[in-house]
Structure formats: C-alpha cells, structure tokens
Amino acid sequence: MAGFYEQIDQDGNRIGWQAKVRKKGFPPKTKVFRTKADAQAWAAAIEGEMVRGLWRDRSESESTTLKECIERYLSEVTTRKKNGHPEELKLQQWIRRPIACRFMSAIRGRDVADVIKDMESEGKSKNTIRLHLAVISHLFKVARTEWGMESISNPVDAVRKPKLPQGRDRRLVGNEEDRLLDACRADDNPSILYIVQFAIETAMRRSEICGLRWENIDLSRKVALLPDTKNGTVRRVPLSSVALEVLRALPRRLDGLVWDVKADTVTRSFKRACRCAGITGLTFHDLRHEATSRLFEKGFNPMEVSTITGHKTLQMLKRYTHLRAEDLAKRMG
After folding, report:
1. Is 288 a catalytic residue?
2. H helices within 96-190, ranges in order?
3. How far apart are CA 68 and CA 62, in angstroms?
4. Which secondary structure element, helix H or strand E, spans residue 91, and what is its range?
5. 241 within some domain
6. What dihedral angle (degrees, nearest 10) is formed by the CA atoms of 138, 143, 144, 150?
C-alpha cells in the first residue's frame, strides 16, 4: 500500500511530496519528489516490481557514488591481487573523472560512452581503453554480487568497445637472428646475449627470466621451475640443449639469481642491440612470439605448448602463434 504526504518547509510552503510504499514481505520504501504525480509513478513502479517478484533494493546504489565504490574496490579487491599497481593507476583516473560523482544507480551506458570519447581524445590506445573498461566492469559486478547493489546493471555491457587491431605477428626473418646475436655479443651488457638466446629457446617472459634462480633449475632433469608467474600459477619449463648450454656457461652467483639484471635493463639493452643490428619493429616480447611459434613448428600440440608457455586458453595462445607458411608447406609434403 502506498501513501503520499506533503513536504512543508519552515514557512509553510509545500516543497514536495513523500511517497511511502509498504508491502508485506518487503522493507518499507520512502522517496521524496517535486510533484505528487512523480511520487505516484514511482510508488506504482515499486509496487509492480514487488508483485511480479522483480523488486531489488536500490537504497545502497542510490546513495553510493562511483568514487566511493572505487575506493572500496581499491581497499578490498585490488590490494589482494598479485600486482595491483596498474589497476590502481587506472582506477585513480576514473576517480578524477566527472562520472565518479554520479550515484551507482544513475550511471548508464551513455555515461561510459562519454568517458570512452574522452579517453580517445586524450590519446589512449584502444587496448588501454579496453583495460580501463574491464576494471570498471568488474567493479560493477562486485557491487552487484557482494555489496548489496543487486538492482544495478553493468553500464559497460551497454557500450561498444574499441575494436583492437590485429595481434602482432612480428618474427625474426632472414638473417635477423644472427645479426641480433652478433650485436648482443658486442653490447656493454654481457648478460643480454644469454638472455636473448634463453628467451628464444624457452618462450619465457622477461620478468620470468630476470627472476630465475639456480635453486629452481634442475640441469639433470632439464627443467626450470617458475614458482611466481604472471598468471599466478607454478610452471615447469623444459630446457632445450641450447638453453642448457646457456645456463652451463654462466657463473654461479652468491645471491642465487641466474642473472644480475633488472627487467628494464634487459629492455634497454635489447633496443640498443636492435639499433646496432639495423633491426626495426622488434620488441623483446616478440621473442616469446618467436619461441611459441617454433614450438608449433617442431610438432608440439596446443596442450604441450601451453604447458611450456603458460597460456591458459587456446585463444590466448593463438595471439602469440604465427606459423610460417613455408615451414608448414614442408610438412605437407
């Protein structure tokens, strides 16, 4: 049953109408409107939802801003992630946008679409924008499932995401590998040669290579253990004869690390070697693409390759796999 009550100010002037909805089995709901017609329409909608079993409590989402939810998400969700710093930076940017002052219940797809336009004008790449949207989309999911905001919809689902360009397919071509290794031999960083060779043989990420420790390498079994990977799972990487040669050529360090080099140093040394070799458009991460593709070309199946590289799905694996048509032709006979 709905009731409607005039709202009077201290001078006796009517300033609005209060609607109250009471129905057995549901908490009483109250809201103030400028006109009685608006109050009656709201009450009718609420009662209709209750009768049809569609009613959801909106009080939390109608009184909580996106900024407040972001701050809670940073405290309860981001802090539990292995590397939450990139996500924190993205959420701090959302806090500085006008949309952060809106109540959660009032945010619609068009509001998110406006933010996408702003990001595009700021020069953000399509992939960066998609990452920003993914974070805020998960926030709405958490708000619905864990924070008592069942009534809200996810506005990110209602917008068209920027279409990503086709994945990189850069591989070593011609004599680029020889030129690259020669340039690495001449580089001021003596470790870069071994690191590049190791990357091509193992498909390890830069961070995984730099964090490699002797205690996690079993030369007799030809396996390297990676206890701390990007996706949070332990991985055991088989070592080829070339990878084993690289490791056996290295001196043992007292701190247990295989290489005394930071990830950023590897990137700088690699770029320097590429310039020296006259190689353009090649990144260190492309060596992971190269190594993954070579595994397929050697005849390993997707399950075997994913075990080596750590990719969790075939779709993810396909982004890194670019087989040379001429190599496949040789296998066709």
Report:
1. yes
2. 109-121, 126-146, 176-185
3. 12
4. helix 85-95
5. yes
6. -150
- Which of 81, 141, 185, 230 is labelled catalytic? 230
Domain with 261, as residue range(s), is 176-332
Within a domain: residue 164? no
> What's the rounded Cα separation, in Å, for the pair 275 and 331?
35
Interval 94-101 mean pLDDT: 96
Does residue 285 carry a catalytic annotation? yes
Q: Which of the following is catalytic: 58, 132, 205, 206?
A: 205
Where residue 80 sits, what CATH number does that domain have? 1.10.150.130
Note whether 180 and 328 are same-domain residues: yes
Active site residue 236: no
318 and 211 inside one domain: yes
Tell me the two tokens of residue 282. Answer: 């090649």
Active site residue 322: no
Active site includes 311? Answer: yes
Residue from 97, 171, 285, 319 carrying the catalytic annotation: 285
Number of domains in the chain: 3
Q: What is the pTM of this model?
A: 0.59
Query: What digits encode the pLDDT tens for the residues 32-58?
Result: 888 989 888 988 888 887 787 766 666
Catalytic residue selected from 58, 73, 206, 320? 320
Which of the residues 90, 144, 235, 288 is marked catalytic? Answer: 288
